[in-house]
Specification:
- The protein is an alpha/beta fold.
- Helix content is 32%, strand content 19%.
- The strands form five sheets. Strands 12, 13, 15, 17, 18, 19, 20, 21 and 22 form a nine-stranded mixed beta sheet that branches.
- β20 and β21 form a beta hairpin.
- α2 packs antiparallel against α3 and α7 packs parallel to α8.
- The longest helix is centred in the C-terminal third of the chain and has 18 residues.
- The chain is globular.
- Bound molecules: adenosine-5'-diphosphate (2 copies) and magnesium ion (MG) (2 copies).
- One adenosine-5'-diphosphate (ADP) binds next to α1.
- The site of one adenosine-5'-diphosphate (ADP) has 11 residues, from α1.
Length: 538
């Protein structure tokens, strides 16, 4: 345990920094005594999208706050922060010298799409169109069309859903005229189609010669939008180091391997492995849950569910656009809502993690676990839940002060700690970083195996879905109006249905076997569409 730099045990057990990188002698910023320190900064270049990948709490948002001029780097001297002259001098000879020179003189314009879009309604009032039209850009129509937000132009910002707010925030940033564009986690809350729309808008800025930087935890999205990536490693909450920049393909593969050759740093003790072939559906498996055709109507919305079966010991994922009835379906399965017609046969024990989490609990995480996680304290809980969700480090925190990712880890952990036959998890990866998503996938698998249970998981992250699914079900229809839930089928079939509606195809990276989005209109894209194989190549 321990990485040789810090004395505490590292959150990622496996983390070990083999060589002390030179950068570690020279911080760019330090928040205070015994507080987070940042080493190194990424490079920004015109006409490129630079991606940042790394765990939560490693300094990604700090970097964007520094580069956007919101935070002047103190070079580690938090007691007597240096002025711009000293900062500029510090970076002499590098591209950043010029950058900070211009930034300090107000000669560059910077736009920053913040991470927490849910805070926007506090500061921005009025209708979506008031906001977007006030920016006075020639590109408004084009951006609104690409993001498919025409229908919400007349809505009040305070009434938007998370996904709508994110799209509006991306539009507002992209419409502003600037030299540098910074997007902090642009895909949170978005469905796959909206993610692709966001990627198009972000790429179009780079194609117009702008400098763009994004922080992103959806590896497929990061891959599709970036030209280069910097990996961040270190000790979340303690210190973060910015790696050299790598081409996007090599960079993400490097991240998957967990080893930075040039820097001689290993930050994970294993490579992330991907399946290449579709999982085999358990045709003769033992039936756990069966449901008939079901209908459920809300005010202006109606959902039609095709009959379906969940077998013992399988993970079924469910995906589709926002506002199509996925959460409604999860609530019916969990018994929180009753369908108007049809029913779920077989009474089974269900553990349900809702999509929207409330954090109004007054006590600490430890108290919350003590009261809500039945097996808390057991060895099984320690090894199968506490460790993968890294709860140790948040035990003393107040639940109502947790970050989005911390609250998600707690909620998924509590859901998995209950003894159940079916785990229904609605968007468990929201706000988790790449590493936490994969750890969560493994933990869910192990729990359902050891409990002889099954899981129904709603999610938008294709790589997570690829990693965890045995079978899948697709939701389609008209968001906010009508939804149709298909029966659970083989993953290949579900992916083909879903991706043909979304209009994208995936190939596999030759080295790591991770799924990569094909360029629209490329040879593979056309060939796969012709064959009807949107996801797996024969
Ligand atoms: P990331 O975006 O990679 O999740 P951040 O840059 O937001 O990480 O934060 C890195 C670390 O710095 C975290 O431990 C965070 O708690 C800490 N931090 C962020 N802002 C401040 C601040 N204003 N004062 C003190 N610590 C901060
Ligand atoms: P998803 O999870 O796919 O985003 P939801 O099941 O949350 O979709 O919602 C589907 C539609 O039903 C949305 O238009 C939503 O506004 C509407 N809806 C959901 N619950 C209610 C409710 N209790 N009352 C009225 N409308 C609702
Ligand atoms: Mg951040
Ligand atoms: Mg939902």
């Amino acid at each position: 345990s321990g990485c040789g730099i810090c004395t505490k045990r590292c959150p990622f057990k496996a983390i070990s920094v083999i060589n002390l990188p030179e950068a570690l002698e020279d911080p760019v910023h330090r928040y205070g005594q015994n507080m987070f320190e940042l080493f190194g900064l990424p490079t920004v270049t015109e006409g490129d999208v630079i991606g940042l990948i790394g765990p939560n709490g490693i300094g990604k948002s700090t970097i964007i706050r520094i580069l956007s001029g919101e935070l002047r780097p103190n070079l580690g001297n938090f007691q007597d922060p240096p002025g711009w002259d000293e900062v500029i001098n510090h970076f002499r000879g590098s591209q950043l010298q010029n950058y900070f020179q211009n930034l300090s003189e107000g000669k560059v314009t910077v736009v920053h799409k913040p991470q927490m879009v849910d805070k926007i309604p506090k500061y921005v009032k009025g209708k979506v169109e008031d906001l977007l039209l006030s920016i006075d850009s020639k590109r408004t129509d084009e951006v609104v069309e690409t993001l498919e937000i025409g229908e919400i132009m007349g809505r009040e910002i305070s009434n938007l859903s998370g996904g709508e707010l994110q799209s509006v925030a991306i539009a507002a940033a992209a419409l502003r005229e600037a030299d540098f564009y910074y997007f902090d986690e642009p895909t949170s809350w978005l469905d796959v189609r909206q993610r692709l729309n966001a990627i198009r808008v972000i790429r179009s800025l780079a194609e117009a010669g702008k400098s763009v930087m994004v922080i992103e935890h959806d590896m497929a999205a990061l891959d599709a939008m970036s030209d280069y990536v910097h990996i961040l490693y270190g000790k979340p909450g303690g210190y973060g180091v910015v790696s050299n920049r790598r081409g996007v393909r090599v960079g993400i593969n490097t991240y998957i391997r967990g080893f930075l050759r040039e820097e001689n740093v290993r930050f994970r003790d294993h490579e992330i492995e991907f399946k290449v072939k579709p999982p085999r559906a358990e045709e003769e498996g033992e039936v756990l849950v069966e449901y008939s055709k079901m209908i459920k109507s809300h005010a202006a919305f109606s959902l039609n569910v095709e009959e379906g079966t969940v077998y013992l010991n399988e993970v079924v994922t469910a995906f589709g656009p926002n506002g199509i009835g996925k959460t409604t379906f999860a609530r019916i399965l969990a018994g929180v809502e009753k369908p108007d017609e049809g029913n779920v046969k077989r009474k089974i024990k269900i553990s349900y993690k809702p999509q929207y989490l409330s954090s109004d609990y007054a006590g600490t995480v430890e108290e919350f676990l003590y009261a809500n996680a039945p097996s808390y304290g057991s060895n099984l809980f320690k090894s199968e839940i506490m460790r993968p969700f890294n709860l140790e480090e948040i035990l003393d925190k107040a639940v109502n002060e947790l970050s989005g990712g911390e609250l998600q880890r707690l909620a998924v952990a509590v859901a998995l700690s209950r003894d159940a036959e079916l785990y229904v998890l609605d968007e468990p990866t929201a706000f988790l970083d790449v590493e936490q998503r994969l750890l969560a996938a493994k933990a869910i698998r192990r729990i359902i195996e050891s409990r002889n249970a099954s899981a129904m998981i709603i999610d938008h992250d294709i790589i997570f879905i690829d990693y965890i699914s045995d079978r899948a079900m697709v939701f389609s229809g008209k968001p906010g109006v009508e939804g149709r839930a298909g029966s659970p089928t083989e993953l290949r079939e579900a992916m083909n249905t879903f991706l043909s509606e979304t209009g994208i195809t995936f190939r596999r990276d030759k080295e790591t076997k991770r799924p990569r989005v094909n360029k629209p209109g490329s040879f593979l894209d056309r060939q796969q569409k012709e064959m009807g194989e949107y996801y797996y190549l024969k």
